[in-house]
Specification:
mainly alpha
Length: 156
């Protein structure tokens, strides 16, 4: 009767699996995770052991942090990364993860203040700033189109 109230291992969704990984990496125990997600403690523990998250929760959190520092896990999704012997160390498992992570963490980019240029739009006259482009004339693509193609229609 008790088992019917709890979700079984087969009823675990992909979302549940992702949340278990996240919570376990933050140092949460099996019992707390099970209560939060409405799963049995044994199904959470079994999943964690199969995915390398077993053992003391504090140690698991420290191991994950250490692996991230050494670039052994993807910064975005947490999957293991195989490093090459030569070249730059990889931080992401794929190009998709790299793009997703940078899209979500734009504030962490190291922008050089000397590479920010201020201009006045040739078409609308508004002041705008650009990062890394010295030759920009327009504040937007819309102003470029209007100046390039609509400018002749006024005189016709």
């Amino acid at each position: 009767m008790r088992k019917s109230l709890l979700k079984g291992a087969s009823a675990m969704t992909d979302d549940d699996r992702q949340k278990i990984k996240e919570l376990r990496q933050k140092g949460m125990g099996y019992k707390k995770i099970a209560v939060l997600l409405g799963l049995s403690r044994d199904s959470v523990r079994g999943f964690c052991r199969r995915n390398g998250l077993g053992g003391n929760s504090c140690v698991v959190a420290l191991n994950v942090e250490e692996k991230l520092k050494r670039n052994l896990l993807c910064v975005c999704c947490g999957k293991p990364i195989k490093q090459k012997n030569q070249g730059r160390t990889r931080r992401f498992c794929s190009e998709e993860c790299r793009r997703k992570w940078w899209r979500e963490h734009q504030s962490e980019r190291n922008k050089n203040p000397a590479s920010i240029y201020k201009y006045i739009c040739v078409y609308c006259g508004k002041e705008f700033s650009v990062y890394g482009n010295k030759k920009r004339k327009y504040c937007s693509h819309n102003c470029y189109i209007k100046d390039r193609f609509w400018g002749d229609e006024i005189g016709i």
